[in-house]
């Protein structure tokens, strides 16, 4: 299903393949060489989501009710979006987003909805953009995001007070290539004090912070440069309790995160806190 690099529901239908190759946090393994990594792959592939039939496979959250659904293509019923910056154009492939230089700010658009525990999924394609993100706010400030550049994947808690003492905390900053013109899928889960993001069903990163316990709001996309395309944006509420399998998955993801190749850090990161928080 989908183009190269996308691993979704159809991937599970190919479980009978003679050779299983998994990429988890940058670790490649075969069935006979790395049983631990294959057990983590099994957690991703075999645990059935709860709730809507098309809810994604999850590691932490138990999806409950669909609350936002927007294919982001033209000629379909759209969610309510508040566009703050940039150029946004719905096409047959998805919504094309690009930064407008005169704005002096990256493109940004959000859906005005309140969230507590939730699962969000979408697909993206880089078409020359410097970076894109799925950004989560609360009523006043930034809370967390999943950021993708052509060479990296970042999972982080955002700076919540700007000029105050608080800083962003990077949980995962993995060197990973995302070729222009290739579709990828992101699943973000937030339950209690924990967030976990998975891309293409292969790479996961997580972290915890008390800030995540508060009510969230206004999820949306950002784009720096020109341009990126998004499609199939869906959010489900989630049950307050994590999945029973989360404890096992957490340990295995933490191992993969420690072994993953690290990308160059951006500004605003709290040194040494990201991996420590994720590995607890």
Provide tags for this entry.
globular, 14% helix, mainly beta, single chain, disordered C terminus, Jelly Rolls, 4 helices, 15-stranded antiparallel β-sheet, two-stranded antiparallel sheet
Structure description:
The protein has 280 residues and is mainly β. The protein contains four helices and 17 strands. The strands form two sheets. The protein has a 15-stranded antiparallel sheet that branches. The protein has a two-stranded antiparallel sheet with strand order 1-2. α2 packs across α3 (246-259).
Compact description:
This protein is mainly β and 280 residues long.
Q: Strand-residue fraction?
A: 35-45%
Query: Quaternary status of these chains?
Result: single chain
Low-confidence stretches: 1-42, 45-53, 267-280
How does the overall form come out from the CA principal axes? Answer: globular
Distance between the termini: 35 Å
- The run of helices and strands is HEEHEEEEEEEEEEEEEEEHH
Q: Tell me the number of structural domains.
A: 1
Overall pLDDT = 82
CATH class: Mainly Beta
Q: State the CATH superfamily name.
A: Exo-inulinase, domain 1
Give the beta-strand count: 17
Question: Helices and strands: which structural class?
Answer: mainly beta
- The CATH architecture can be named as Sandwich
User: How many helical stretches?
Assistant: 4
User: What kind of sheet is the major sheet?
Assistant: 15 strands, antiparallel
Q: Rg, please?
A: 18 Å
CATH topology: Jelly Rolls
Helix content: 10-25%
């Amino acid at each position: 299903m989908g183009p190269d690099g996308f691993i979704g529901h159809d991937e599970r239908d190919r479980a009978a393949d003679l050779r299983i190759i998994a990429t988890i946090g940058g670790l490649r393994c075969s069935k006979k060489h790395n049983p631990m990594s294959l057990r983590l792959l099994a957690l991703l592939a075999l645990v059935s989501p709860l709730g809507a039939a098309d809810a994604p496979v999850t590691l932490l959250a138990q999806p409950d009710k669909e609350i936002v659904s927007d294919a982001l293509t033209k000629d379909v019923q759209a969610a309510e979006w508040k566009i703050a910056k940039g150029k946004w154009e719905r096409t047959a492939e998805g919504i094309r987003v690009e930064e407008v230089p005169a704005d002096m700010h990256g493109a940004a658009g959000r859906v005005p909805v309140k969230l507590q525990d939730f699962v969000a999924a979408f697909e993206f394609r880089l078409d020359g953009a410097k970076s894109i993100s799925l950004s989560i706010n609360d009523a006043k400030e930034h809370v967390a995001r999943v950021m993708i550049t052509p060479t990296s994947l970042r999972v982080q808690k955002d700076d919540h007070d700007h000029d105050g003492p608080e800083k962003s905390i990077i949980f995962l900053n993995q060197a990973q290539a995302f070729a222009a013109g290739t579709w990828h899928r992101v699943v973000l889960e937030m339950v209690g004090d924990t967030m976990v993001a998975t891309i293409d069903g292969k790479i996961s990163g997580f972290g915890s912070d008390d800030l995540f316990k508060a009510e969230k709001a206004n999820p949306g996309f950002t784009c720096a440069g020109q341009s990126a395309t998004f499609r199939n944006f869906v959010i489900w509420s989630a049950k307050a309790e994590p999945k029973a399998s989360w404890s096992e998955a957490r340990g295995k993801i933490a191992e993969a995160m420690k072994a993953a190749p690290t990308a160059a850090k951006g500004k605003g990161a709290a040194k040494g806190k990201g991996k420590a928080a994720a590995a607890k």
